[in-house]
């Protein structure tokens, strides 16, 4: 059976996350419903590069599925998009070898986190960015972020609920880009722990407010204690931007 790889985008505001769960609307469920319609009721399982939490968005999530249908690559996006809700879109599709796996073949990911700076909340941004009522010092945020680039034990920057034992990860890029009142954090790496990007964001925001020094980052890493880092930034500002293979 051919294996199809798709790059998809979704607005996570009205989803309870990517992964199927009881009595909840999820991205995976909508994808599998659309595939079942195309396959005349046959169940088709979808595998993603990783799951995203409720409220988290994706610009470049990657999935794969196996199909018995001989549909050309160029036609898969329209075939699926015509059966998907408006908050999910298949951007690209290609047939790949059976050895390809959306999760295990991934070499890395890039996430982006959006912050808008305003004392008054923006109704149009409430599901798509995190509000900072105070002006953040992006130079301090960038200086703090540089301390995280490289290979480190990120125990202090992952949820205490995680069951993963090996918390060593490599960050290859961390940029702080300011455009007017909007700040965008761009973080790329070989892999990420649960809530890692959101905790990094919350910690860099503390640096931007002057509540911690960029020099504190090394001791936060060395402490291997979640309570040392900043708060977990809200889900709505996070975007899975790209998966690398």
TrEMBL record:
Ligand binding (substrate): 111
Positions annotated as active site in the UniProt record: 53 (nucleophile)
Chain ranges of the Pseudouridine synthase I TruA alpha/beta domain: 9-104, 146-245
Catalytic activity: uridine(38/39/40) in tRNA = pseudouridine(38/39/40) in tRNA
InterPro entries membership: PsdUridine_synth_cat_dom_sf, PsdUridine_synth_TruA, PsdUridine_synth_TruA_a/b_dom, PsdUridine_synth_TruA_C, TruA/RsuA/RluB/E/F_N
Broad EC category: isomerase
GO function term, MF aspect, one: tRNA pseudouridine(38-40) synthase activity
Family as reported in the entry's similarity comment: Belongs to the tRNA pseudouridine synthase TruA family.
SUBUNIT field: Homodimer.
Function: Formation of pseudouridine at positions 38, 39 and 40 in the anticodon stem and loop of transfer RNAs.
Protein name in UniProt: tRNA pseudouridine synthase A
